Amino acid sequence: MSSFFSGLDPVRYDPEATGIAFRHYDADKVVMGKPLKDHLRFAVAYWHSFAADGSDPFGAGTFGRPWFGDSMEDARQKADAAFEMFRILGQPFFCFHDHDVRPETNDLRENHKRLNEIADIFETKMSETGTGLLWGTANLFTHPRFMAGGATNPDPEVFAWSASTVRSCLEVTHRLKGENYVLWGGREGYESLLNTDMAQDLDHYGRFLSMVVEHKHKIGFTGQILVEPKPQEPSKHQYDHDVATVYGFLRRYGLEDEVKVNVEQGHAILAGHSFEHEIALARDLGILGSIDMNRNDYQSGWDTDQFPNNVPEVALAYYEILKGGGLAPGGTNFDAKLRRQSIDAEDLIAAHAGAMDICARGLMAAARMFEDDALEAPRRDRYAGWSDELGRAIMAEDATLSGIADRAEADGLSPAPKSGRQEILENIVSRYV
To answer: What residues make up the catalytic site (predicted)?
Structure first.
């Protein structure tokens, strides 16, 4: 057992507590027929919680965790600390990259051996704590070999290294009964067309993803394969820019029935969208798989990965999720990190507990709006004309542009503007949150 979190008790649901507690997240409270824990399916991100050192582009790391180092003993100590934190929080899942949990070497077989050694430890600790694996993934962006990407690298040797790394991570995820596997394309893009063959990059990326799907079926992994949309960071032009871009890519390579998306709030904002837009689009396209919950600093224009604290934003995101029937087998992963001045173990617990409360408040508000028909009734009213005779005629299979145009002229149509009632709807949302 790690001593890093000594003195910190398990976080309990206590609306009247003054210290660290859940004031809104009652895991077993039933909402819309399911306990909150089954709606939210919280996961802790191994990388930001246990591998981030608090550094930024202008300053060295500030966290100084006792497990920071490049030895397997450090990795084992990190695992002890991680599962001690999971015991304190009681969240059902965690997520990891291979690079987070074991030291990196320049030997593929050694990397895989080390990952499996840590997976041995994970298996025991997962059994002891009841913590499951929401998803695993491979880090194909940190090491200099990936400076031009992994699957889209112009060097086929890097593609082959990436294939071996992903195979190992996918097999370990399967072994640990992970419910999803994510491909996070941090550098799958380009910085300049002067040295890039974009068409070839996309073909390589499509072949890589097809190989991953093929291997999933070969080993009997029944979880979802997810791509995480991410725009312009760190690459300038990333091929998985947003949900719409990813869907177009999946359709081009015949993967739309095999691969879904893991949508992150911070990435949605960087792409110029709202989080709820990306979730709703993914849902309507049939590719919503899971979410990363965080927020950006809207003044910085950068992916700051802060813990969520905005209930209205979170409520609108979960509203779109509830409309689609929920997240499972996906979940809510906190891809969020402490600020570099928040250096204590207590800060890490408080950040997650507070974020879990924000999500619970948001989901419960979304559920009340959904059950009260507060937003759907006005939406149906706005589109009611499409259920009338003219609307049905327009959408009929035998309708033509000329036919509809002739009808409009014969009927002497002169449509009057109708209010979209946006402010009224915003006021409705405010009453729930």
So the answer is: 97, 100
Report whether pLDDT(127) > 80: yes
Dihedral, CA of residue 18, residue 20, residue 23 and residue 25, to nearest 10: -170
Q: Kindly tell me if the per-residue pLDDT of 180 is higher than 80.
A: yes
97, 126: one domain: yes
Structure tokens at 210: 């097809």
Identify the DSSP state of 13: B
**Catalytic sites, residue numbers:** 97, 100
Which residues lie closer than 8 Å to 246 by C-beta, 6 or more apart?
Answer: 227, 229, 240, 261, 287
Q: Are residues 287 and 142 in the same domain?
A: yes
Q: Give a yes or no: residue 388 inside a domain.
A: yes
CA atoms within 13 A on the CB side of 379: 7
Binding residue numbers: 228, 264, 267, 292, 303, 305, 335
Annotated binding site for Mg(2+), which residues? 228, 264, 267, 292, 303, 305, 335
Compute the C-alpha angle 359/362/365, nearest 5°: 150
